[in-house]
Amino acid sequence: MAAERIRVGLVSVGWMGRLHSRAYLAARHHFPELPAHAELVVAADPDEGSRAHATDVLGYREGVADYREVVERDDVDVVSICSPNFLHHEIALAAIEAGKPFWIEKPMGRSAAESGDIARAAAARGLVSAVGFNYRHAPAIARARHLVRTGALGEITNVRTSLLADYSSDPAGALTWRFLRDRAGSGVLGDLLSHGADLVQHVVGPIREVSALTETFIRERPLPTAGAASHFSRGAEGGPRGLVENEDYAAILARLENGAVAVLETSRIAIGPRAEYGLEVYGTRGSLRWSFQRLNELQLADSPDGYRTIMAGPDFGEFSRFQPGAGTSMGFDDLKTIEAALFLASVTEDRQLAPSALDAWSAATVIDAVLESAASRTWVAVPEVAHPGT
């Protein structure tokens, strides 16, 4: 018997929109038991070339300019929202109003208030959701969570996560929307530290209090040329410049609900690290380390002999969906395929399996508390909205 179809509408055909599309299609191959598979119906993007890519390359039946034509169509069952941050709130609420489950990228809103609006509205309509916290889907992270939650490391004493990148380290990089507060909200906090907050909460437990500092090291950037949208875009040499309105760097001390202490650090202007995202967890009986740059490995210290490296294998999370045995690596796109499969399963089973809008709201409350702490130079409590990942 052929599987049913879930008809997909996409909003924004940038890098992440293209990745969502590939992930939907790959989910059929890696999760063949899903009761429904994705059918790519319509993609919205104001750029004509992006619309052509959606139909000619990705396989959507139609490309349109206005996102409303996606969320309001009767032949669209779910919506992927991959637009810039400042459009997330408007588009997500429109999808919710239309009764469409949605898969949205992080940060879900430019603030905890916007994220809360989306999470509460989805809950009120009884809609499942998915949020782009893809790093939690690494099989080594699944094993790390299992070790922590089953007590294999003993009582957790402290956690460290570091998300260092260089994508904005060039002072000639254009002042695109990512550097403007009304467009992006926060800077590297929403872009990268939202992942760090989610990893800490998913693996160890909720963050309840923070003390933080932030800094903007590159305070001016050249204005973008026509068509520049990516944070890799360069401005015109010698042209006009504008002020960067959000942070390049942040360092945070945090207390977790279970009594553990955490240190979180993030930068978008670090020269050297390209995508150096890591998690370390220390307990009274052992510790573990994971790095995205070696995402198929987990370092585990569960004896006096120190760390040993364990390769992800068939008993680690969803590893066996992609590779037959340890030593053959998974990649970034595979993590999004797992996310797509979780979203499709959430829709067909009508129960939340993917990281949810509630998880995104929880991460956003951490980001808002960090910004408040950095401004006031005091400890700030993180409001409890949920227990993410449970």
Which structural traits does this protein have?
Rossmann fold, 390 residues, 2 domains, Oxidoreductase, Dihydrodipicolinate Reductase, domain 2, GFO_IDH_MocA-like_dom
Global geometry: globular
- Main β-sheet: number of strands, strand sense, barrel status? 9 strands, mixed
The N- to C-terminal Cα distance equals: 34 Å
Helical region count? 10
- Ranges with pLDDT <50 over ≥5 residues? none
What is the class of the largest domain in the CATH system?
Alpha Beta
* Whole-angstrom Rg: 21 Å
- Give the CATH architecture of the largest domain: 2-Layer Sandwich
Mean pLDDT: 95
User: Can you count the beta strands?
Assistant: 17
> How many separate structural domains?
2
What is the strand content?
A: 15-25%
Strand order of the largest sheet: 16-15-14-13-7-12-11-8-17
Report the CATH topology name of the largest domain.
Answer: Dihydrodipicolinate Reductase, domain 2
Pfam families: GFO_IDH_MocA (PF01408), GFO_IDH_MocA_C3 (PF22725)
InterPro entries: Gfo/Idh/MocA-like_OxRdtase_N, Gfo/Idh/MocA_oxidrdct_glycsds, GFO_IDH_MocA-like_dom, NAD(P)-bd_dom_sf
GO molecular function, one term: nucleotide binding
Keywords: NAD, Oxidoreductase
Task: Explain the layout of strands and helices.
Layout: E1 4-11, H1 15-30, E2 36-44, H2 48-58, E3 62-64, H3 68-71, E4 78-81, H4 85-97, E5 102-104, H5 112-125, E6 129-131, H6 139-149, E7 156-165, H7 181-184, H8 188-203, E8 207-215, E9 220-222, E10 241-243, E11 249-256, E12 261-267, E13 275-283, E14 287-291, E15 297-301, E16 308-311, H9 332-349, H10 357-376, E17 380-381
Parallel strand pairs: 1-2, 1-4, 2-3, 4-5, 5-6, 7-12
Antiparallel strand pairs: 7-13, 8-11, 8-17, 9-10, 11-12, 13-14, 14-15, 15-16
